[in-house]
Write a structure and sequence with these properties.
Layout: H1 2-12, E1 26-27, E2 42-43, H2 52-58, E3 64-69, E4 74-81, E5 92-97, H3 115-121, E6 124-129, E7 139-140, H4 155-174, E8 180-185, H5 187-198, H6 200-206, E9 207-213, H7 224-243, H8 253-262, H9 268-280, H10 284-293
Parallel strand pairs: 5-6, 5-8, 8-9
Antiparallel strand pairs: 1-2, 3-4, 4-6, 4-7
Length: 299
């Protein structure tokens, strides 16, 4: 399942890279990237290549950075976007977990329209975790990312160590054990199912509820072509990535650079778009709604 999730999320990085070095770096449709200069359907988005902190501060919100230690020694970075209001109101804590090739910045890419800042505006205490192996959570008490043993983990460890650690941390800081809402996306849902199944009592004691976005629990209904590729070539891709040093569970800098170089030009972007639809499907009505409100490329 981990290989299938990785392959699914890998092509989604095509939709998160800057496709132009021109001033206009975001367009409404794929075809508009053929000419970004002077195109009324293209514009400049300052969030392209920005990190979470920059985007949050640019929008006028405070942000906190916390370090969380897991039971097995990993040091995770956990961000908090508290309300900018200087009152003592106890706010509902919400944890929003990104997917396997995502990052905490994904939740604020569309500024105040993003779920992260939208929830802050509506009175929630927003927490954005990063998981072990991601670009920001590479710490460990006695290992580095150069140690093979550092990477000896899977979905179970993310669920039973990382989730447990940052849920307990949020509960302690907010003093709201049992009142935390968890929102997961893609792999963020998968690990939540493992956590709630294996640590049922812990989940009942700490969480008020869980919300799943693009949930992944089973892969028996996955597109046959993608499933066949994952089964037959997944180990080869994993071995190649390992040989190239492309390890990670979030946005991997080397992968992003590769995609910007080879998928950052027109008409190659058309192929990238096709790969996204191959793994995710295509709903024209949803896509039109999203593109009209935001843009095709979000980062």
């Amino acid at each position: 399942m981990l290989v299938a999730l990785w392959l699914h999320s890998f092509v989604h990085l095509f939709a998160s890279v800057d496709l132009s070095e021109a001033r206009n770096n975001v367009c409404s449709t794929v075809s508009d990237y053929a000419l970004t200069w002077g195109n009324p359907r293209c514009w400049y988005n300052p969030n392209v290549r920005s990190n979470l902190r920059d985007i949050v501060l640019r929008n006028g919100y405070p942000i906190e950075k916390h370090n969380v230690l897991t039971e097995d020694g990993y040091i995770l970075v956990l961000y908090r976007i508290p309300s900018s209001n200087k009152d003592n109101t106890k706010r509902q804590p919400v944890i929003i977990q990104h997917g396997i090739q995502g990052s905490a910045a994904f939740w604020v890419l569309h500024d105040r329209k993003s779920i992260g800042l939208f929830l802050v505006d509506h009175g929630y205490d927003v927490w954005l975790p990063t998981i072990r192996g991601s670009a920001e959570s590479t710490g460990h008490v006695n290992m580095t990312t150069k140690d093979p043993a550092y990477w000896d983990f899977g979905l179970d460890e993310l669920a039973l160590y990382d989730m447990v650690a940052y849920i307990e941390y949020v509960a302690k800081v907010t003093n709201q054990k049992g009142n935390i809402i968890y929102i997961g996306h893609s792999m963020g849902t998968t690990i939540s199912y493992i956590y709630a199944s294996e640590r049922r009592r812990h989940a009942n004691e700490h969480l008020r509820g869980m919300i799943s976005l693009a949930p992944v629990a089973f892969i028996n209904k996955i597109d046959p072509l993608v499933k066949r590729f994952a089964v037959e070539y997944g180990p080869v891709v994993a071995k190649l990535a390992d040989n190239l040093g492309l390890k990670g569970t979030g946005q991997i800098p080397d992968v992003e650079m590769f995609l910007r170089k080879y998928c950052g030009t027109y008409p190659v972007v058309v192929l990238c778009d096709a790969l996204i639809k191959l793994t995710s499907g295509d709903n024209p009505n949803e896509n039109i709604a999203v593109r009209n409100d935001f843009s095709f490329v979000v980062m």
